[in-house]
Write a structure and sequence with these properties.
heterodimer, A: mainly alpha, Rna Polymerase Sigma Factor, Chain: A, Arc Repressor Mutant, subunit A, 2 domains, about 70% helix, globular, B: mainly alpha, about 75% helix, elongated
């Protein structure tokens, strides 16, 4: 065993554990499954490590192994009869929704509390919950593009769907996500404070 | 050049693709030119950018000690 290679791998994995776990958690929505996915990813990555030509690309490489592992299992499960009975979110007509437009009321002066402040005050839990509420196909598209930074083409290839499907899932996912954040923000009283602050400055 | 300048509606239509780095170079440059001059669209773009950053940040969460120990044990055995 190459001690240098092992040391490199151990150090990299240790440093990346939070990202691997966070991404796995977003994909699986379940901490036990996320932990299993991370462990499986680490084992696969070690087995393939000698194939990694550029050590600089280790982070993206191991995250890709994690994503590929999850997506191929998900696609396999999705093709099975019991899962195929689930309603297909693709058939739901998604309505556009913009959090910005909700916050940016034209009758209020815009230079008071900036809309960005609402984003910074959103709790991590609000974001996690809103993402977890998305149907699988939508959530996975968001994780691939927004979390992992894949291009639409890369996401389409991984998912085995046309690029247009990725684009449409993303649009619907983001509309649902923003609607959920709006709802959570309202429930938490955050948006009322935002709107009041604006109104007082009119 | 000003003839080809994008309107706010056109910028809004292309904004998502632009923020996802899916715009062609010409459209991206036109959008950037517009954002430098239009406060309303700039504000909208910044909002969407920050929201995207928050989603991205959701891809990292403190791993439980149990998982860290499991990974360490696994790697030590390699």
């Amino acid at each position: 065993m190459d001690a240098g290679l092992h040391g490199f791998f151990a150090e990299k994995v240790e440093r990346l554990t939070d990202r691997l776990y966070g991404t796995a958690l977003r994909l699986t929505r379940n901490s036990d499954d996320a932990e299993d996915l991370v462990a499986e990813t680490v084992a696969k990555a070690w087995a393939k490590l000698r194939k990694l030509s550029d050590p600089q690309s280790f982070d993206a490489w191991i995250l890709r192994i994690l994503t590929n592992t999850f997506v191929s299992e998900w696609r396999h499960r999705r093709a099975s009869p019991e899962v195929a009975m689930e309603p297909d979110p693709e058939n739901d007509e998604g309505e556009p929704f913009s959090l910005y437009e909700k916050l940016h009321q034209p009758f209020l002066l815009w230079w008071t509390t900036p809309e960005e402040e609402v984003i910074t005050k959103l709790l991590r839990e609000d974001m996690d919950r809103a993402l977890d509420e998305l149907p699988d196909a939508f959530r996975i598209a968001v994780v691939l593009v927004d979390v992992q930074g894949y291009s639409y083409g890369e996401a389409a290839e991984l998912l085995g769907v046309p690029v247009g499907t990725v684009r449409s899932r993303l649009a619907r996912a983001r509309a649902q996500l923003q609607r959920a954040l709006w709802q959570h923000g309202k429930d938490a009283g955050l948006l009322e404070r935002h709107m009041t602050a604006k109104a007082q400055n009119v | 050049m000003s003839k080809s300048a994008l309107t706010c509606e056109e910028v809004l239509k292309h904004l998502v693709a632009y923020l996802d780095h899916e715009s062609d170079a010409h459209t991206a440059a036109e959008i950037e030119r517009h954002l430098e001059r239009c406060r309303g669209c700039y504000s909208r773009a910044e909002f969407e950018r920050q929201l995207k950053a928050r989603v991205r940040a959701a891809g990292s969460r403190a791993a439980p000690e149990r998982l860290r120990a499991r990974i360490k044990k696994l790697v030590d055995e390699f």
